[in-house]
Target: Late embryogenesis abundant protein
Amino acid sequence: MAEKNQRANGYTRKDEESTTMHSDELKRKKRIKLAIYIAIFAVFQVIVITVFGLVVMRAKSPKLRLSNDIEFQNLNIVNSGSSSPSFDMNFSAQVRVKNSNFGPYKFDNTTAVFTYGGATVGQVIIPKGKAGLKSTKKINVIVSLSSSQLPNTADLGTELASGTLTLSSTAKMTGKVELMLIMKKKKSANMNCTITIDVNQKKLRSLECK
Model:
């Protein structure tokens, strides 16, 4: 009888040891799984933060351009066939500030300068404003230009005789890109446009901006 009890107790201890070992093995597997999940989550977080930093938090320079919808209100060509050619004009134009950032771009007052042959023939103020995130701000301006300040009009006479007038427009806009409501980065936008006018038809022939 005592021998039977000893055998029974032996079986019980073995069952208990087996159960304990099985329980420890399950716990070990759970810890391994948990460690794997934590590692995957950490890698995922690193990837998200990296992409966020490179794409979202990276401030790009906005683009400043003149649009093609220039409308002439007044275009006077004087003495185009003589030795003293000149021009005076007024036209409406649309300036576009394209912001491709994930935050608004607030810009200051900007002066756009119009030149002929490197000499200034007029300028216009682009008022300060804000271009929203991933959007384009459109600003209408009235431009007045005159050749009265040109030091030399010989080239002007030749060009007007051909029926065209080529002008340049440049500007540098300064401002700040606001990211996630906490970061502000200074960014500037440059404009460099070439405007070709058909003086006979009194309309825009071409407009190229870089």
About this structure: The CA atoms of residues 98 and 136 lie 4 Å apart. The mean pLDDT is 86.
